[in-house]
Amino acid sequence: METVFDSLVLGFSVALRPDILWFAFLGCLVGTLVGMLPGIGPLAGISILLPLTFGLDATKAIVMLAGIYYGSQYGGSTTSILLRIPGEAASVMTCIDGNAMAKKGRAGAALCIAAVGSFIAGTFGVLMLTLIAPPLAIFALRFGPPEYTALLTLGLIFLAYMSTTSLVRTLLMAALGLLLGTIGIDVMTGHFRFSFNIPELGDGIGIVPVAVGLFGLGELLATPSHQVVGDVKSPRLRELLPTREEWRQSAMPIARGSVLGFLIGIIPGSAHIIASFLSYAVERRVSKHPEEFGKGAVAGVAGPESANNSASTGAFVPMLALGIPTGPVTAVLIAALLIHGIPPGPTLVNDHPDVFWGFVASMYVGNLMLLALNLPLVGVFVNLLRVPYAYLYPLIIMFCLIGVYEVNHSIVDVWIMLIMGVIGYGLKKFGFDPAPLVLGLVIAPILEMSLRQSLIMSDGHWLIFLQRPIALTLLVICVGLLVLSATSFVLHRRDWRAKLAAAETSES
Amino acid sequence: MIIRTDHVAGGAFLALGVLVFAISGDLPFGTLSAPGAGMMPKLMTGLMMAFALLIIAAGAESKPFKSLDWSDRGHAALLVLITGTAVALYQTLGFLITMSLLVFTLLVVVERRHVLRAAAYGVALTVFAYWLFGIALKAPLEHGLLWF
Predict the structure, then answer these.
(1) Is the pTM value of this prediction over 0.90?
(2) Of A182, A401, A421, the CB nearest to B40
(3) Has the ipTM of the complex gone over 0.90?
(4) Domain boundaries defined on chain B
(5) What is the DSSP string of A419-459?
């Protein structure tokens, strides 16, 4: 405990430096805007702005990019409550009761509860991250190639299990991502794979062009401006304070959402989306007045908003301690750290304590900044929602082009982004979620390397995965999840994932 | 037989798998004790095709292909065309000219906005982005025909 305290002191000595504070503030501000604007989620926002961090050191870069991620969870609630349009996917559940509260003239109270809930949950998440990540990193030092292979496989299976589309569709997308991840020079043999004599493809396909294409451009292609309408009224400052009864009703949902969100956050998958749905379901179940849900229940705002913030912080645990992405956003953040020469994983805490603890401490500060940004300045932010979409999306396209081009100064990357945009549009039409594709692309090099190393170590015996206790445990969990999924498929049971899919469809 | 969305999607992934197998013939699979460069791509292609077959097999429950809403296809096609042209011209014309033209064309052609307003917005936005990226953040932007 003393070590953690000393490390946190080191972290705060980094996080409270004026330059780090400035980049944390920038990240939080941009994240709030990204979360508010329909069409750009945190993934596209982070990917587009990744090149801006190239001139910064690793600590500033990761502090700013993480600020965009958790800031977007705050910002998403504003659009959901005021317009009934989820600014980003995790805010889908907030639309229901948040907008109903707004229609009753309680928009300010809903925004305040969402912001305070997000703050409490975010801070709780960081506290848990502080306590859990270092011992987990020490444990992960026991991992060899078979354990990493099993862990990455578990990540993909978990993502598939948690996905709101079917297990088969998710696994297909992951396989496609893993296939795309094999493009380029094979580091073990030097073979060129699928590079078609294009030198730029020798290094493989970058995450940024794929992520920006699928999530940024793909979304814009499917959103004609005449479909984006919204009459937004900004609440007055004095309307922001909830009543004593509203505070009382929100206390327990915030507490439950914080714990639930963190637990789900550390599991791979689009955790913050799932966390908000599960929190909503839990609140409706434990409520004495479930009939109020959908008509402006305070718990329907407080729970999901807390859960999605706590989950977004929880997602940093496997990212920092194991070096494994739990979803596309953490995948891009890992790429950002790698670009700056900092490999995330078990050695991060010891090799780069200033980066690790500075990052953790900056999240405490960032949550405070977000509370300050999101409450008094909500009236300023909603003005952004008044900018006609027709004028907004050319700006987003321009940022997509600049963002992708500046990563490697490669026009091939920009073409890849454009192609991925078209593919993203097609995938959306046919009901495929592109997130597993990006995750597959990111983990492909690590998975391939650890799989091949495992086979070489064992002289070609697959049993190596069953002979090592950690790998075996992880694979048993994989099988358990596959059996669970198969059971609900065979029995045609409508489980929580099907309900989440239905809720997402009805809100989009 | 009604063609459904999952039949089309599954068929497309199956065709992609066949194509990948066709072009990866020279990649050695190796052996289990010495896996080659082709092992992972071929495994993943095989998996992808297997999942595609499963999707086709369960496709009867999906929506009819004809019921897909393609009302946004004109908007999407124009965006791809205009953005693609901008990408093709980017290194020749440089940042300032390409981006101004991109925003202007999107506003005039896709959004039917007033020409003068679109031109002013396009130039203002590009100058702002140039200041942000090129000057404030010192990111090297393409010069193209212009010397700065």
Answers:
(1) no
(2) A182
(3) yes
(4) 5-67, 73-136
(5) HHHHHHHHHHHTT--SHHHHHHHHHHHHHHHHHHHHHHHTT
